[in-house]
Amino acid sequence: MARFASYSRKRMWRTLLAIVGGTALVCAAYIFYLDWLVTHQFEGRRWTLPAQVYAAPLELYSGLQLSTGSSTPAPTGRRAAASM
Predict the structure, then answer these.
(1) What residue ranges do the domains of the chain occupy?
(2) Rg from Cα positions in the chain
(3) DSSP letter (8 states) at residue 73
């Protein structure tokens, strides 16, 4: 009886290893396919899509005073005097 249980246990591990290995192989093949698909679709159109800017440019430098209510800098210096 013990001999049969040992054989059954080995067979179970081999079957489990085959299932895990097969699943890993299928997943790896699918990942390589997706990589090829994305590369193939975007290869020629890398710079054809226009860029969109969603914010005004902001110069950040050491000593710039930012207001706490928003992310825009507080008016200071020559620009502040000219705009007031």
Answers:
(1) 1-44
(2) 31
(3) B
pTM of the predicted model over 0.85? no
Q: Tell me which residue of 79, 40, 35, 38 sits closest to 59, measured CA to CA.
A: 79
11-64 tens-digit pLDDT = 999 999 999 999 999 999 999 999 999 888 888 776 666 667 777 777 888 888
Q: 66 phi and psi, to 5 degrees?
A: -105, 140
CA dist., res. 78 & res. 23, Å (int): 67
Residue 58 and residue 72: Cα distance in Å, rounded?
8
**DSSP letter at 61?**
-
Give the distance from CA 10 to its chain's centroid.
41
Query: What gap in Å lies between CA 40 and CA 32, rounded to an integer?
Result: 12
